[in-house]
Design goal:
The protein is mainly alpha-helical. The protein contains 15 helices and 4 strands. It has helices spanning 2-11, 15-33, 59-71, 81-89, 103-108, 127-148, 153-165, 175-209, 212-219, 225-255, 261-285, 294-308, 320-326, 330-342, 347-379; strands spanning 49-54, 73-74, 95-99, 119-122. Strands 2-1-3-4 form a 4-stranded mixed beta sheet, with helices on one face. Helix 1 crosses helix 10 and helix 14 runs antiparallel to helix 15.
């Protein structure tokens, strides 16, 4: 029990991180969901600043530029690479788009590869850039389908533009629907808090037990190595449970829903996700990482998992490349399970999402333990 008690003594040094990330998580929920402020019942598209370079100058490319100009604000001028980077950094533009020569001919010839010829440079950490790329992809798909129907370029472009620019007003018919949606909005964002709290507070404690001088002291003690690892694992599990309880309680209070059927499904999904992240932490702890580096991992892993996994950017807004990467992450399947529960799905509908999250955890933990075993043999 000495190792178990020592774990929590060390954990006290990171209580500030726990409370800070708990506060950040709750703040992010309010910002993304709009629960904390007044709600606007009308939908309107958000205009982004973009720079468009049309090297094709064809009828198709001109129609695309015209569409982008209506949906966004095109910033005109000759800019250097450094100026483009500065404008993105200060969020004056979200995308730098280049339409290459020959795009229009390939598009009209039915070559689907023409879609991928358009170069879009964006800030990978900004959801605005992904939204603009989604607008381009949706417009070109509609444009192409209308041309297949026998319409001229101008007619096809007009119909596609009209379909995408027609944003009708939406009004909620009752307060129950707003509260229903809030459950999924809140619990979609909570994994960021779990990731941040586990990586900023729990991982550094485990890493401190791996410091060479502490390893040598425990190595000559009467405590067997297997018992030491078991106690650390048990303390990690207990800490993770308390973090999970705190996040679920906060989420249930904010969403004003608890102990319903779908709430239990969401809770099961969150428990599975938390378990996979604990296994990820066990894997990382077997690498020779200094405890001070845990803060960097919190941002690197936490933000990348959330952006590519549908936590900060809805899955339908992610590009195909981002989705391809995201499918390897537990956050992606967590978000997918949330979507299925929101659409009325039950345990059978989300079972594969839960299993994939666990499979991710087992795979990374197996790799981490293998590396840890190799490092021990190498040290001997």
């Amino acid at each position: 029990m000495i190792v178990f008690k020592t774990f929590f003594k060390v954990l006290k040094n990171y209580k500030t991180s726990l409370f800070v990330y708990l506060g950040i998580s709750i703040a992010v929920i309010f910002l993304l969901s709009g629960i904390g402020g007044s709600s606007d019942k009308n939908y309107s598209a958000i205009s982004h600043g973009i720079v468009v370079i049309d090297n094709d100058n064809s009828e198709v490319s001109k129609e695309l530029v015209a569409f982008l100009g209506e949906a966004n604000s095109i910033v005109k001028g000759d800019f250097t690479k450094d100026q483009i980077i500065d404008m993105m950094y200060y969020t004056k533009i979200s995308n730098y788009i280049v339409i290459p020569a020959g795009f229009g001919d390939k598009f009209l010839s039915g070559d689907r590869e023409a879609f991928s010829l358009i170069e879009s440079t964006k800030d990978a950490g900004s959801r605005m850039g992904y939204l603009v790329e989604t607008e381009i992809e949706s417009y070109l798909n509609l444009f192409y389908n209308y041309t297949l129907g026998g319409y001229s370029v101008n007619e096809a472009a007009g119909f596609a533009k009209e379909a995408l620019m027609d944003h009708s007003a939406v009004e909620m018919s009752g307060s129950d629907k707003a509260e229903t949606a809030s459950l999924f909005i809140v619990f979609t964002v909570l994994p960021y808090g779990i990731l941040s709290m586990l990586f900023s507070a729990i991982l550094p404690v485990i890493l401190r037990f791996n410091i060479e001088i502490i390893n040598k002291r425990t190595g000559i003690s009467s405590t067997p190595a297997i018992k030491k690892q078991t106690m650390i694992a048990l303390a990690t599990a207990v800490s993770a449970v308390f973090i999970l309880i705190a996040m679920v309680t906060a989420g249930s209070v904010i969403s004003k829903e608890a102990f319903t059927d779908r709430w239990f499904f969401v809770l099961l999904n969150m428990f599975t996700f938390s378990l996979s992240i604990v296994m990820l932490i066990v894997a990382i702890s077997n690498f020779n990482i200094k405890p001070d580096f845990a803060a960097g991992l919190t941002n690197i892993i936490g933000l990348s998992f959330c952006f590519l996994g549908g936590i900060f950017v809805p899955l339908e807004f992610l590009g195909e490349g981002a989705k391809a990467i995201g499918r390897f992450l537990p956050t992606y399947w967590y978000s997918e399970a949330i979507e299925r529960i929101k659409n009325g799905g039950g345990i059978s509908d989300i079972l594969n999402c839960l299993l994939i999250q666990l499979l991710f955890g087992f795979m990374v933990m197996a790799i981490g333990l293998a590396i840890g075993k190799y490092n021990i043999k190498k040290a001997e």
